[in-house]
Structures are given as C-alpha cells and as structure tokens.
Amino acid sequence: MDFKQEVDINEGEGYYGVGSFIWEVVKVFFWALVIIVPIRVFLFQPFFVQGASMETNFKDGDYLIVNEFGYKKTAVAFNDINFFTVDVFKDLERGDVVVFRYPKNPQQFFVKRIIGLPGEKVEVDDGKVKIYNKENLEGFILDENEYLPADIFTKGAVAEDLKDDEYFVMGDNRAYSHDSRAWGPVKKSEVIGKVLLRAWPVSKASIY
Questions:
Q1: pTM
Q2: d(Cα 187, Cα 102) in Å, to the nearest integer?
Q3: pLDDT at res. 167
Q4: Which helix (H) or strand (E) holds 99?
Q5: How many domains does the chain have?
Q6: CATH number at residue 181
Q7: Is 11 among the domain residues?
Q8: Which parts of the chain sit beneath pLDDT 70?
Q9: What is the per-residue pLDDT for 4?
Q10: Can you tell me the distance from the alpha carbon of 132 to that of 121, in angstroms, rounded to the nearest whole number?
Q11: What proportions of the chain, in percent to the nearest 5, are helix, strand and coil?
C-alpha cells in the first residue's frame, strides 16, 4: 500500500514537471511576441546602404537601424482585420537622415538627408542651397558645415515650392546623388523613418 502510494506520487510529480516546462516555453514565446513584434512593427527597421550617394557620411554596405515610431503611419492588422492604426505624430527636422520610398517606384527605398521642410521654397543655384520660409522671406543660404565639407558644391539649378506634406531631400555626395533635384519632393506618407544608428561596420558604429 505504501509502495503504491509512493509510485503514484512520483508519477504525479513527473507529469507536473513536464507540464510546467511546456507552460514556461509557451510563456517565453508569448512574451517574445508581445515585446518583439511591436518593436519590429512600430519602432525599428534595418536598412542596408546601397551606392555612394550619401558618402562620405554613409558608405555602400553600411547597416543602419531606422526609427519608424511616429514618422510612419502604421496599421496593426491580422487576417485582413485592422485592429488599430498609429498615425504620424513626429516632425522631421532639417538635416535629419531618412529612409523613404522612392516616389517613382515605391518598391525601392532610398536614404537621403532632409534639406527643405513642408511649406518652404528650396533653391539650388551656383553651388549653394537657399531656403525661403515664413521666418526668412528673403531667404538664407543653408549652412551644412556640420555634415558636409565647407567647400562642397551642390550641382543643379532648381527652384521647388514644397506643399504642406512634402520634403526636399538630397544625398551628401552632391555630385553623384539622384535626389529631389532630379525627381522632386518626397511626401510625408512615403517616409519610413529617421536613421537612428549605424550598427555596421562596428568600427564606425554611431547614434544619430
């Protein structure tokens, strides 16, 4: 009688242990989904730089992490059921480096720098960039010494009036960048996010 009771107890303990292990695995997967999926959907997007248009600040093959949160309208859906939508609530600033859908082909993604903001007028002439807005009706020459060599020459002759939902973007490699000087402004709805950090190469890892 005592032996039978001991066997039953041991078997019960063994079954409970397996069940606990499975339950722990389920919880780990659940919390992984709760934490990782929102981060992936709302917060960050990986991006590889392709080409030389952003040299010398960003080079071909650089691995960037893009912050999407607040810069991109995001719908959370499952099986064609839209649970909720997060609208854009952050404004980009002049000088920000952004990733966006190429206006001529939304399947392609470009990385460029914000030069002109919504509602402004951008002029490129004689190698300089001039900005007109409500605060500067006569315009001002854009100072880009923070991220470009002092002797940089911006090619082109452009005058672009931006709508309230448009940005003017250019690559840092002004002589070899295909950007708003060629195909016009980028709409807010085409912006994916702002470059948060360069993760690779490790020797050049930095936060922006």
A1: 0.72
A2: 10
A3: 97
A4: strand 97-102
A5: 1
A6: 2.10.109.10
A7: no
A8: 1-21, 23-44, 70, 74-89
A9: 43
A10: 5
A11: 25, 40, 35
